[in-house]
Amino acid sequence: MIRRLQRRLDTGLQLYRQLIHTSLAAMLQYRVALLIWLIGQVLAPVIYLVVWSTVSVASGGSVGGYTSGDFAAYYLALMIVGHLTYTWIMYEYDYRVREGTLSASLLRPLHPIHGDIADNLGSKAMSAPFILAVAFGLGLIFQPTFTFVPWAAVAFVPVIGLAFVLRFFVEWTLAQAAFWTTRVSAINQLYFLAMLFFAGELAPLSLMPPAVQTIAALLPFRWMISFPIELLLGKLTPQQTLTGVAAQLVWIGLSYALLRVVWRRGLRQYSAVGA
Amino acid sequence: MPQEYNPAMPPAILAQQLTKVYTVAEREAGLAASMRSLVRRRTEDVRAVDGISFELAPGEVVGFLGPNGAGKTTTLKMLSGLLHPTDGQLAVLGFTPSKRDKAYLRQITLVMGQRNQLVWDIPAIDSFELNRAIYRLPANDYQRTLSELTELLELGPLLKKPVRNLSLGERMKCEIAAALLHRPQVVFLDEPTIGLDVTMQRRIRAFLAEYNRRSEATILLTSHYMADVEALCRRVIVIHHGRLLFDGDLSTLVDRFTSHKTIVVQLETCPEKLEGYGEVLSCEDGLVTLQVPKAETPRTTARLLADLPVIDLTVEDPPIEEVIERVFNQEAA
What we know:
Shape of chain B: globular
Number of helices of chain A: 11
Number of domains of chain A: 1
Number of strands of chain A: 2
Strand content of chain A: under 5%
Strand content of chain B: 25-35%
Structural class of chain B: alpha/beta
Shape of chain A: globular
Distance between the termini of chain B: 37 Å
Strand order of the largest sheet of chain A: 1-2
Number of helices of chain B: 11
Oligomer: heterodimer
Distance between the termini of chain A: 39 Å
Strand order of the largest sheet of chain B: 5-6-7-3-8-9
Largest sheet of chain B: 6 strands, mixed
Order of helices and strands of chain A: HHEEHHHHHHHHH
Largest interface: A-B, 27 and 38 residues
Helix content of chain B: 25-40%
């Protein structure tokens, strides 16, 4: 029993190693594009950071209790969290459906989701050092203020992992829309807006109007972005952290169930219309 | 060698009344039509495959013929589990393809001329390695198959180049190798030689024959090149408008759909009067091509030999392309 489990684990690891190897090899063919994309990833939080710092200085040192140092800490953390949880599947999937590369992967005895997981793990392993270095460098310039809490830093590791899993499941599920419509960009826009307002990408959720905060509490988005940031910046109690992890797990469970249903229906749709 | 059909053996592929109906959104051009389609979308049912039945014995190589839009690719996609049949029964190696059972997918392959298994930006060998992991091929088996494929398809110098730098023919060879690394028992080939030059076509043909011989795989292939079919398939299945037109030996097909034979006679010079023997298609430097009704071929041949100073004489069937064209046209009429 244990031996069989071990063997499955071994072949699984071997498979993932090969998948990651392949995706890295393909990615490295486009080093310049990769660099430009990374710079884009860095740029958005920096712009927010500069804007809000300026606003806070102009309004006498702080906005809603956030000093420019607080903003610096928030957006640098956002840069890291955003990068570690980012996926591009929603932008790629409809190409796969239209161009038939999905058909090629459906012929293989492996669920296509594994390739996507490997792509993400590989690209993150490669670009995370870059993002961390940039965040550190920007930290020297913008002087973030935050409390370093050792247990929170440790807890951040599983929490960011769960945040990635949640975001990946949600975005992979939404990507399946490509089976039903040729206008996935509208859905992507809507999702992008939801992330902006309810995940804490535009501004810290605590600065948002109460109505937005109430809605955000009911939606999964804050558990992908805002929650790990708050934890990293030492703003959460152990109790709040555990509640947050529980919320992450519940949303992961729900999104996984949804993913399975949507994938099965999507495949049926795909094969009805013409793969 | 293609295996004989043996009713005692369970078929590798069994299709009964296989049907596929696509629901296609229909929209006229223009803004008004676009607006209307927002409210109520008009759809039309297209019967791409309309109740076809056939069986393939294990190890058989069968040519699947039909003009564009006949339903060949749709059928291959149903066989490989990409499409769910709308109706009818389908069993391949005892599996229902649309369930996409992993054990099933491990034993089949589908090569589509235009679609790629290979990752575009990296060398083919890396894609092969990926397939080794996905199909969980033991290292020994993988190495043996790989060196066999490398030898048969002459892949040696191609394996380490990024796929995007390969020519169409080179890429196709690599695609075929990638699709066969796991030694599938059933191979579906959709236009495996499309866009390739004659030498490359011939090489791929020879390779497929050899693969069939060595691994006793069942092969169903479509091709627009009749030379592929003649070289590989004793038996052909012809479909048109989603219906089965013919299923049997290629020679029977030729026999049934040709009313004429061609007699080529080498004479000293072109004689004046040849009309009595048949329709003269051409005469150049004494080389006469005559078309005669099939039934009269023996008599005409005898007369030619008796009446004229014949240097050489051959009797030929019309080119297979012509026969196939006639089959399709006859159905259309």
